[in-house]
Structures are given as C-alpha cells and as structure tokens.
C-alpha cells in the first residue's frame, strides 16, 4: 500500500502537467520559525524546569508523558488556536515535536483530561512562579508599574461573565481584566481576570499587592501609574503606608471641578507640552483622610466640536461652535506625592497616553490575530544529509521573506552597470545526460541577453532540479551516471 501511494500521479492543470508524489515520511511543518524559540527554551532551561515542576501525575503506564502534554499546549499557544479542537491540526507536524524533545503530539482529549487533573491552586502557583522567574532579573533597574483595567465583552456562556459597566457593548456580559505592566517594555507581569462587575480598583488591589510581595521589596517599581479607576482613597492610602510613590488620575467629581474653577483664575500656569499647561495645588475630597498634592492640567480645544447622541441604536451627530470670546477647555487632575515639577508630572501621564494610543496591545486585552497570521505561517522541512539535520524554511502567504544579496557581490558603479548585460532568466531543463539545454518555451531574445563566458574560464556546474529519489531511480535504470 505504501509503494502504491508513493507512485507519481500525472495531473493536468492550467499551469501544465504536474507529477504529484506522496512522501509519507517527509517531516514538514507550517511553523518553521519555532526552531529559534526551541533554542531559547533549551539554552535558558525554561521548558525543562516547567515540565519538571508540573503538578500533573499519572499512575497508568499507558498514559502520555508530561512533556508531550505540555509541549502540545505550548505548540497550540504559539500556533494561535483558541479551542481544544484546533489541536488536531498540529498532529501532522513532523518537525517541531522533535525540536521540543517530545515523543508525539497529544490528542485534544488527552490534553483536556491532563489539565483537568491539575488543581486550580497548584496550577496557579506553578505557572505564576515560572512567569515571575522570567521577569525577575529585569526588575533590578528602576522601572514604572502601569495598572490598567479593560472590559472584555463575552459571547456565549463563559465562567464569570457578568453584566456590568460595558462602554463598548452595553448590556453584554463581560470580564474585567486588571493588567499590571512594566512601562516602556510591553511586558505583562500579571493579569487578574475577574467578573465584569469587579472592575473597580478596590477589587484589583489584592492582586497588585500579591504581585509586589512575590517580587520582593528590592525589586519594587519606582512608582505606580494608573488612570482614574485607580485614583481612589483606598489605593492611595495603601501606597502611602507602604512607601510607594504613585501618579494617579482623579475623577472629575464636584470637588475636583471646583478646584479647577479656582485655579483657572490664578496666574502661574506652566507649559506642560502637547498643548497642555499645568499648575500645582492641594486637594482634599470628601472621604479622604488627608490633603494631597495634585497637578491640574488644562488644554484648549478647537472652537468647532462635534457631539453624538445614541438612542435605541441610532446615532445623531450635532455640531457646536464656541462664540467669539469663549473657549472650550479639557481638564485633568493628577494626584502624586512626588516633589516633581509640573512638566515632569504631566510627562508621566502624557507618555502613558501616547503609548496607549500607539501601542494598544500593551494596554488593551486584545489578540493580535492579523499580525500573528503573517508571521507564524512559515513552511519548513527537515533534510538529513551526512549526519546533519538541516531545517529548510520557505515563506508562505503574506510573509514572503526574500534574503538580499550580500553587498560585496553587487556592482555599485552606475556606468559599469549600464554596459554589462543582464543575466538571463531563461528557464533551464535537464536532459538525462546531465547537460543543460534551453527550455523550448524560452524566447530567442532571452538567449541574446546571456553574458558570454570568458575564454579560459571554467564552465559553472549545472545543478539538477530533480529530486534525489528520482535521481536514484534514473541511476538504477542506467539513464544517468553519478
């Protein structure tokens, strides 16, 4: 049956006659670039430590190994599937399992049953410990911790989905993702996924302090930065008690608005950049235990503005224009115990806004499917020759990667480049004798553009495009010689 399946089949297509061969032993993968990630895992020892500390235990001798289960999960995460059923598409991968030291790709049922055997607390401590080990060496230098809360709409029946404040999909169940990031590096330190109605900062404060306790006091951030969701009395009081500096934006409540009205008539506003100006002040809102230093920022908006009104799914657009002599202003109030100048305090907040607009994947809990689809599909095959294993990569889809020629092989003289004839792109066919002849489909004009070989210079060797298996068959029949 194997010999019958390996016979060549002639197929007549619009591009001509094609001989199709089936190689059941070929090692091919669509994720060819994972070889570099496999080298990182081996050199760093992260994957071996992850497998060794895994709390998964099997008693049956017929059960799959932990390395096969965890390796299958790792491949499925890197390949982009979002469901267990998509793991089946990886079972035909003949390259990456061996690069990770796996015996085979486990089935979706084996992966599901294996993960169910891991307890919730044991699994969380196991994964969190290894995640902290990957970032802990980076935290010895001064750094800033960004806190952000994102509402993720959900569809279908999912655990923990609750209807709450959903700005994009009102009335849709959602999750509240409290993310803690290392500013400027796009590195997520921890994410606390909570029900949709737990979107306040007081719900995420235990996760913040648990993260800081795991890191250790010597690796704490220089300051904590957050939006208006984090500018609450409980969070600021906890940071002050722990000696941790912060920069939080406050909600524009009645007290904050009255402060902005009083500061508007004062002199001494300083330029804060990006069209903003700021001034220092003291503020104590109702419910606060003490007065705190704040920085009031303002920015004048253009005179013509557009307003929208949504009612029963229908959106209306209204234009408004300020009268002569009046202005439209935007205000922001920042609370911080740091003795910073107004421009520096404003920069800490404005830099977060710029990064949030330019790099939304750092702040919002989104999945970069479009970017991953371009880069993860890289066809590769394994070739073994003379005790060497060679991984041959080839781009597929939009990721057409064509390496450039080395600079030393390029002729940079414009005059010489115009006088030299261009190399011919005429297709070449191979005869059984091993000599090269022009293809009948080539035009005579293409042959005229071939550069003439200099006298005394050896003819370059002709590389046959036929496969090694076909070459061996022709040699057995006596049609070609080695």
Protein described:
The protein is of the alpha+beta class. The protein has a domain of 132 residues. 31% of the residues lie in helices and 24% in strands.
Keywords, please?
482 residues, alpha+beta, nine-stranded mixed β-sheet, three-stranded antiparallel β-sheet, 16 helices, 18 strands
Task: Report mean pLDDT, rounded to a whole number.
Answer: 77
N- and C-termini, Cα separation = 31 Å
Q: What structural category do the secondary elements indicate?
A: alpha+beta
Helix content percent band: 25-40%
- Count of distinct strands: 18
Main β-sheet, spatial strand arrangement? 6-5-4-7-8-14-11-10-9
The low-confidence runs, each spanning 5 or more residues with pLDDT under 50, are 358-371, 397-412, 416-450, 462-466
How many helices does DSSP assign?
Answer: 16
Beta-strand proportion: 15-25%
Report the C-alpha radius of gyration, rounded.
Answer: 32 Å
